[in-house]
Amino acid sequence: MSKKHIITFGYQDYAVDSLAAATSAITLLAKLTPVRYVTEGDSDGWHYTPDERQHQREREVSLKMNQPFRDAAKEKKPKPLALPKPKRGSIMCICEKSHVAPKETCPHCGRAFAESHNRTHGSDIESKPQLRLL
Question: Superkingdom of the source (predicted)?
Answer without folding.
Answer: Bacteria
